[in-house]
Design brief:
With 220 residues, the chain is of the alpha+beta class. The chain has 2 domains: 81 residues, no CATH class; 99 residues, Band 7 domain (Tetrahydropterin Synthase, Chain A). Helix content is 26%, strand content 33%. The protein has 6 helices and 10 strands. Strands 1, 2, 3, 4, 5, 6, 7, 8, 9 and 10 form a 10-stranded mixed β-sheet that branches. Strand 7 and strand 8 form a beta hairpin. Helix 4 packs antiparallel against helix 6. The chain is elongated and about 65 Å long. Belongs to the eukaryotic ribosomal protein eS1 family. It holds the Pfam family Ribosomal_S3Ae. Keywords: Ribonucleoprotein, Ribosomal protein.
């Protein structure tokens, strides 16, 4: 064999060389192990997005329709652990479709909010009414959703906002306000996405790009 011939590992051999790292949930979810993922280099894990359900964290089967997206921002090679931040969430499409009824209305609001500690999040909030409402009523309901959630976010830390959004506290608050002007059947935070994080230089896009031998994202 020529001395210039490169030695190449097969796919199975490359797989065997990979280590498995335990994925740790964010502080808001208790820093608990949720799953594991392989990698041949720890720095390559940074930025990887892990999808789990709320059921995986709580053991409550009624929350299996809530999908959580966690992004790895830090890796500890010695402990073989990868730490995550909340990247966003989305309700299962089948669950959302099941909430739609004939002769009723669905009002959706998509907007950005900023928490009191400087995180920027884009929630998608939906309200389902008991009966079909007119354009003016839809406008009023959407206004209430946006104003109330914006106010709540400005008074909560990032973790507090995520907790209230995921576990339904804020949806209930919206429900209680909207029902004052029109009969409501359901309110849900259908989706959310983390857009920016606070840094010493100001807000920075919540984008993590892995770099060789860098084991922690610089924006946190």
């Amino acid at each position: 064999m020529s001395s210039t011939t490169k030695f190449r590992l097969t796919g199975r051999e490359r797989w065997r060389l990979k280590k498995w790292y335990t994925i740790i949930s964010p502080q808001v979810f208790g820093f608990i192990p949720v799953t594991s993922t392989p990698s041949d280099e720890p720095w390559k894990l940074l930025g990887r997005v892990i999808e789990i359900t709320l059921y995986d964290l709580t053991g409550d089967i009624t929350q299996v329709h809530v999908h959580l997206y966690l992004q790895i921002y830090k890796v500890d090679p010695e402990k073989e652990e990868a730490y995550t931040i909340f990247k966003g969430h989305e309700l299962a499409r089948d669950y959302v479709r099941s909430l739609t009824r004939r002769k009723s209305s669905k009002i959706v609001a998509i907007f950005n909010v900023t928490t009191k500690d400087g995180y920027v999040i884009r929630p998608t909030v939906a309200t389902w009414t008991t009966y079909r409402c007119n354009t003016s009523q839809k406008h009023s309901i959407r206004k209430i959703m946006m104003e109330l959630v914006t106010k709540i976010a400005s008074e909560k830390t990032f973790d507090e906002f995520i907790n209230g959004m995921i576990f339904g506290d804020f949806a209930q608050a919206i429900f209680n306000e909207v029902k004052k002007i029109y009969p409501v059947r359901k309110v849900e935070f259908v989706k959310s996405k983390l857009l920016a994080v606070p840094t010493a230089e100001g807000p920075r896009k919540a984008v993590i790009t892995p770099k060789p031998n860098v084991l922690e994202a610089t924006f946190l």
